[in-house]
Amino acid sequence: MPEVKYLETMITAAQIDEKVTDLARQIDRDYAGKDTIFLGILKGSYVFMADLARKVHLDQLEMCFMMVSSYGDATTTSGNVNIKLDLENDLTGKHVLIVEDIVDSGNTLAYLKSYLANRQAASVKICTILNKPSRRKTQLEPDYCGFAIPDAFVVGYGLDYAQKYRQLPDVCILHFEGEEAGAEGGKRI
Ligand code: 5GP
């Protein structure tokens, strides 16, 4: 695995908080009066899911989780998705909002959408805090998106590198030993 050199803040906790408030407002408006279920994709979405769920005002809101992993190397994914924790909730007639940390190739969500297709949900939409449109390999686009970001490997706000850095409140670019020098002001670790 490449050696980590330093972290560079890309999106601050304050910017994230403002964006999550904004997304919650849109979701409140679109899901008012509907039987709604947030489906968090573990592990990366746990921080966003907790923040978003506490900012919406949906009386009938249910929450559930799936854990998926896709095979690939340390910083990219392939199209092979493995379900590690499956749904227990009945989705029949429910409006499902998949809550994701980041949409990259779109392979994970394309797989999940087709996996959920025969669960009789009334609707299935996607809400992601981060989106890398330049990396997309599928037709899939999120219905709600926090920040479109360039092609960089990021950690924090739930996202990891080798299971570390998830707890960072900011979204940071991870720079590796041997790569071109990044922007000034990176935090050495
Ligand atoms: P996709 O299937 O869209 O290619 O990949 C989605 C998953 O890949 C995300 O849920 C996340 O786990 C991982 N991923 C994609 N880009 C990044 C990134 O920049 N940083 C981290 N930590 N994970 C990423």
Overview of this structure, please?
Helix content is 21%, strand content 33%. It is built from three helices and ten strands; from the N terminus they run βαβαβββαβββββ. It has helices at 13-31, 46-55, 107-116, and strands at residues 4-11, 36-42, 62-70, 81-85, 95-103, 123-131, 144-148, 154-155, 171-176, 187-188. It has a six-stranded mixed sheet. β2, α2 (46-55) and β3 form a beta-alpha-beta unit. α1 (13-31) packs across α2 (46-55). The longest helix has 19 residues, at 13-31. 32% of the residues are buried. The structure holds guanosine-5'-monophosphate. Guanosine-5'-monophosphate is lined by residues 44, 70, 77, 100-108, 153-155, 159-161.
Task: Quickly list its features.
four-stranded antiparallel sheet; alpha/beta; binds guanosine-5'-monophosphate; 189 residues
Question: Brief description of this entry?
Answer:
With 189 residues, the protein is α/β, with parallel strands linked by helices. It is built from 3 helices and 10 strands, in the order βαβαβββαβββββ.
Averaging pLDDT over every residue, what do you get?
90
Give, in order, the helices and strands: EHEHEEEHEEEEE
Give the termini distance in whole angstroms.
16 Å
CATH C-level label: Alpha Beta
| Overall number of strands | 10
Q: Could you say what the CATH topology is called?
A: Rossmann fold
**How is the main sheet built?**
6 strands, mixed
* Number of domain units: 1
Strand order in the sheet with the most strands: 4-3-2-5-6-7
Named once each, the bound ligands are: guanosine-5'-monophosphate
CATH architecture: 3-Layer(aba) Sandwich
Residue stretches low in confidence (pLDDT < 50, at least 5 long) are: none
Residues in helix, %: 10-25%
Q: How many helix segments? A: 3
Dominant shape? globular
> What structural class do helix, strand and pairing data support?
alpha/beta
Amount of beta strand:
25-35%
Computed Rg: 17 Å
